[in-house]
Amino acid sequence: MSIIEIENLCKSYRVYQKKEGVWAGIRGLFHREYREVAAVRGVNLRVESGEFVAFLGPNGAGKTTTLKLLSGVITPTSGTVSVMGFVPWHRDDAYRRRFALVMGQKNQLWWDLPATDSFRLHQHIYNIPGAVFERTRDELTEMLDVRHLLGQPVRELSLGERMKMELIAALLHSPEMLFLDEPTIGLDVVAQHKIQQFLKHYQNQRRTTILLTSHYMKDIAALCKRVVVIANGSIHYDGSLAGIIDRFSGDKVVTLQLDERTDFASVAKLPGSVEIEPPRIKFRVPRDEVARVLGELLDRYQVTDVIVEDPPLEEVIASMFLEAAQQEPELVGAANGRPTR
Ligand SMILES: Nc1ncnc2c1ncn2[C@@H]1O[C@H](COP(=O)(O)OP(=O)(O)OP(=O)(O)O)[C@@H](O)[C@H]1O
Ligand SMILES: [Mg+2]
Q1: Which of 52, 68, 178, 216 has the fewest CB neighbours in a 10 Å radius?
Q2: Three-class secondary structure of residue 103 per DSSP
């Protein structure tokens, strides 16, 4: 049995559809119209113990919704989930003690209290024995280098410092399963790197199973061997980050450095040329034609250097998202309902 087993998971939100105009508004008082937003549509996924998996997807893809379902914050419309044998939305106390959810967009610590007080609260909520609590807290504050900030009200901390405190709070009870929703959002590159290093080290040490969402490719490249691409509420890819290029890009980028005396205007007109900065010129070439095209170019021009590389990952991912969005037009069904109070 895998530590996470998700089968045919679906979640639709019911959203009140406000109509424009006064009459429509008055009618709306008696007869409300709702729209169903299908946020997660038939997700199947298995995660093994100790894996560090990234969820990658455009805004509104259903990543946060999936993490909320896995941590039992919300209940699905249909489908089944088992995490360490628990059904998350049953909210068993025993489950609560074994996972943690950190949301970069949401503050979970007490704003006006110093972090150290929030940590104590966590100790009581999770019933952590004193000695264990202190050891874990000291270890984590040491690793994240925030000991000197423990006594300061959280609202006075910088975003990066607060995020570190959020992580410590989440890890005090040594969860076996960690859900991280954009833990580095809004952080500068140095702070991002520190959080990455910390997570990497922590995961190496403890073998915690971690699911992370991030829009920063650097986070994903640094941390996750396995990337699950979610778009439109369903999974479009499951594999390595590098594998995305093999699967979704049929092109290579060929850069040639040409002799200074070349007629660059004519080279620029060749099919596939995408960028010209004499003496360099870049071509996008279908992978299986690279050898032929390169041969022809070498025959025709005075070439001083050649680079053949994959297109930038960000670009491949952007076109993959676009393709996924076009594949499935948004499935929205209208439903009528009674006014709710
Ligand atoms: N509480 C809610 N009520 C109604 N609709 C919601 C609610 N939460 C999310 N949605 C909708 O569900 C879809 C998926 O949202 P979700 O937050 O899971 O996306 P996401 O992948 O986390 O995106 P992002 O990268 O922007 O965080 C979106 O269309 C969103 O508008
Ligand atoms: Mg989100």
Answers
A1: 216
A2: strand
